[in-house]
From TrEMBL:
Residues 428-462 are annotated as: Disordered. Residues 1-19 form the signal peptide. This is HD-GYP domain-containing protein. CDD domains: HDc. The keyword Ligase does not apply. It comes from Streptomyces atroolivaceus. It is an enzyme of class 3 (hydrolase). Keywords: Hydrolase, Membrane, Signal, Transmembrane, Transmembrane helix.
């Protein structure tokens, strides 16, 4: 367990000892432990964990213990507590772990799940659960309405014990303050574990029925497939976020101004989208649009972006190509959807004086009209090395003044309402670079600059 802190080692050792003591009664010949049921459940749990260890099917199999909690709860319903303690141990010891120390992580997971399943089994037994499950040689019918209460009690204990043990390892291994280690853990676990309890109860009822253990796979297999689909969804979204992050980092390297600005424009765009009542998929796409609105700067020569002093007409035309460069860069990224139009048109103005195509009014895509407002707002409220950012009320008032000519009044109103509701952190809006985004002045109050590259103060350009 090298690499594990002394406090974490002691904590893990205590968990292992407690789990071992909980399992001791099952080893007694007088206990009547159903070894066949225990062994089959342990083998099923191990079979569920093994694909992640060996990355079969290209590593696309979801590997999280939470995917198989219904199986562990079924074990808590079917076995006495001392036997239920043992079910998760083999699977945890062969499971996939995210990083070193591998041994410590596996031993900890085995002890944690053993204690959690044992506690859930005790709660189930004390609340009269075994009597409601039915089955057995007499073929008793399960009292399903009455079986729900013990199952929910077991799930509640399962979630609380799991959260308590998680908080302890966070506090000892990661040296997080005790008052923060458990924050939010129990609340986040209650709902999912109640759903797990229902699936586990269905599995236990089928296991005890005349159809036998094989019928329990009717629950386990669809559950595993649904977890796989859910994991694929999250993996795809993780890939999307990685793509966005890579593009933003590339722009940050080329133009220091965008560091922080892109994320804030994405946040402001999201605030506007939510205020407008957009559905979640469009809200996410609009946030991506805000983050990537200046990605076209990758196509602009660095000497032009960082030039001190006024731009020549030719350099100004090069700067004004950055929306088209950005559109070309993201053209093949399918998940961006409407965001591509925002990247291309976020410098258009309602009166037709913008670029690259001089679109007017509603001919400007909705996403572009949102990003234009978010971009201008962050530019005005961000502090530069040569001037302080404006207060939020002053920036909103300036947006209102320019609404109808440069900005869509509906988007300006939506941002104003969102800021009243959620506020805006001025501390997060400090920019150390001197560059301003194209299309926005920095020295004077008017945000309606005629074109990108107009000098905003001696020696600088936008």
């Amino acid at each position: 367990m090298s690499g594990t802190s002394a406090a974490a080692r002691v904590y893990i050792l205590c968990a292992v000892v407690c789990a071992a003591l909980g399992a001791v009664p099952a080893l007694s010949p007088e206990a009547g432990t159903p070894w066949g049921t225990l062994g089959l459940l342990a083998a099923l749990y191990s079979a569920c964990e093994l694909p992640g260890r060996f990355r079969v099917f290209g590593g696309s199999v979801p590997i999280t213990a939470g995917s198989f909690f219904p199986l562990l709860l079924a074990a808590a319903f079917l076995l006495p507590p001392s036997a239920a303690v043992l079910v998760a141990v083999p699977g945890a010891l062969v499971s996939h772990v995210d990083g070193p120390p591998v041994t410590a992580r596996r031993v900890w997971r085995a002890a944690q799940l053993a204690l959690t399943v044992g506690a859930a089994s005790w709660a189930y037994a004390l609340s009269g659960g075994p009597a409601t499950l039915g089955g057995g040689p007499e073929g008793a019918v399960p009292a399903l309405p009455h079986a729900l209460l013990p199952a929910c009690a077991a799930a509640l204990v399962f979630g609380l014990v799991l959260a308590a043990l998680d908080g302890g390892i966070i506090a000892t291994a990661e040296r997080v303050a005790v008052r923060h280690a458990w924050r939010g853990l129990p609340a986040r676990s209650v709902g999912p574990h109640l759903v797990h309890a229902l699936a586990g109860l269905m599995m236990a009822v089928l296991w005890r029925s005349t159809y036998g253990p094989l019928s329990a796979l009717v629950v386990l297999l669809p559950m595993y497939i649904s977890c796989w689909v859910f994991a694929q969804y999250h993996r795809r979204h993780a890939a999307h976020r990685a793509t966005i992050r890579a593009l933003v980092q590339a722009v940050d390297i080329k133009d220091g101004y965008t560091r922080g600005h892109s994320e804030r424009v994405g946040r402001a765009s999201e605030l506007i989208a939510r205020e407008l009542g957009m559905e979640e998929s469009r809200t996410e796409a609009l946030r991506f649009a805000g983050i990537l609105h200046d990605v076209g700067k990758l196509g602009v020569p660095t000497r032009v972006l960082r030039k001190d002093g006024p731009l020549t007409p030719e350099e100004r035309r090069v700067i004004e190509l950055h929306p088209e460069y950005g559109h070309e860069i993201v053209r093949g990224i399918g998940f961006l959807d409407e965001a591509r139009a925002a990247i291309l048109h976020h410098h258009e103005r309602l009166d037709g004086s913008g670029y690259p195509y001089g679109l007017t009014g509603d001919r400007i895509p909705e996403f572009a009209r949102v990003v234009a407002v978010a971009d201008a707002f962050d530019a005005m409220t961000s502090t530069r090395s040569y001037r302080r950012g404006r207060p939020v009320p002053a920036a909103v008032e300036e947006l209102r003044r320019c609404a109808g000519s440069q900005f869509d009044p509906r988007m300006v109103r939506a941002l104003a309402r969102a800021l009243d509701r959620h506020g805006w952190s001025a501390a997060a809006n400090t920019v150390t670079s001197d560059e301003d985004p194209a299309g926005l002045p920095t020295q004077r109050a008017d945000v309606r600059a005629p074109a990108a590259g107009t000098p905003d103060r001696p020696g600088r350009h936008r």
